Structure formats: C-alpha cells, structure tokens
Hints:
Blueprint: H1 7-13, E1 19-24, E2 32-33, E3 40-41, H2 43-55, E4 59-64, H3 67-72, E5 79-83, E6 92-94, E7 99-107, E8 125-129, H4 133-141, E9 146-150, H5 153-162, E10 167-171, H6 172-178, E11 186-187, E12 193-202, H7 206-221, H8 224-231, E13 238-239
Helix pairs in contact: 1-7
Amino acid sequence: MTARMTPAVKAELAPTGKLRVGVNLGNFLLVAKDPASGELRGVVPDLAQELANRLGVPVELTGHPGAGQVADSFATWDVGFIGAEPARAKDIAFTPAYLEIPATYLVPAGSAIRTLDEVDRPGVRIATAARSAYDLYLSRTLKHAQLVRAEGIPASYELFVNEKLDVLSGLLPRLSADVAKLPGARILEGRFTAVQQAIGTPKTRTAAAAYLLEFVAEIKASGTVAAAIARHGVKGVSVAT
C-alpha cells in the first residue's frame, strides 16, 4: 500500500515549498560529491528525491560534516538521513531503519586483542568519530576502555595511526579499506553494533513522522532501497529487516 499523502503531511514535510534534507557527508557509503558537477550522489540523495517526488516539490540537500552536526541542525531541515540513536530522539522522530551498516574494530599489527570482548578493558584507547552513531553506542555501553574522539571518520583513522591507539572503531566497509593500508593490522571478527540508518523529522511534526514510517516500510518492501544500494555499488550494507 502506498503511504497516503495528505495536506497536513505535505505542510509539515515541505512548509517552504521544497523538501529540505539534512545529509551526513561523513557517511561516504551513502552520499558523495560528484567530482565534475559538485552535486550530491548516492543512496541518500536517491531516497530523498523519491520522497520529494511523492510530495511534488523540489529537493534541497544540505550537507553537514558529520551525523552530530545533522542532528544539531534539526530546526533547519524537514527530514534528516542519519543513524537513529536515543541521544538524538529528544528532538527528532525517527523511522525504523531502512538500511544497516555493521560497525566493528580494527587493531594494529602485534595487538594482543583478538576478540570484541577483549576491547572493553582498562587502559585500552579506542579512536572514534565524534558523535557518530557508533560513538554514541560505545559511549553508552563501554565500561572500562577509553574513547578518544576525532571530528569525522578520516580524522579518527589519522588519530589512531598518529597517536598509536589500541583500537580503531568504525563502519566495517571503511575499516576494510583502512586495514589494507596498515601492514599486519586486523579487523576483529563480528560486530559490536549495526548502525541503523533512518529518516528523521523534527519531533513536533507528528503527521510527517507517521507518513515517513509508512514511506520507509514501503521503500524497503518494494525494493527501492535495495535498488539504490545496487545502483551505486555500495558494499557491506544491507536493507534493514
């Protein structure tokens, strides 16, 4: 069943006559800048365009360097494409996830750490991208290890290497590229979480939130999300169940 568009939904999703979308430029798997035109391409822009088409309005994509900045600017956009996290839910109403990205750890050559369970120990320092969904998850769940934060995913890698930290946390597809640059480094088997990529809207927009819930269910069931993943050749992600 197609999600029902009503005047109330359209008024909340496009109050300015266009769909203003907050985009996390740090999530290179789902959005990238076209080198020739400068336009944003990827799974997120495709899904944002699909939503705008249903609204019958143009789409305006506004990029932010990280998910934390997208969440902070919720008052300036109509929908935001970021990981659904409890720390963000005070201001933002999230849909169920449309896509999942596994997150795990990378350790350097010679590390004595062999399993995920061995990471959360006193004295272990973990590089992470500040306010990423997996940083928020680790902030809630770690009991002993220390998180050392950098602004953005590339910066967390540089911090890990330059400061000789014990562990690098990150999205598995990115770590799979990073490990090739570090002789002897290893990615630990398994995952400590899967980042739930969702669509959010300001919490006061109840009609919009209800519509987006149906919209996400529909684009998953219809194959729209899977088609966008395939079209852009994204590896290591899956449609959320």
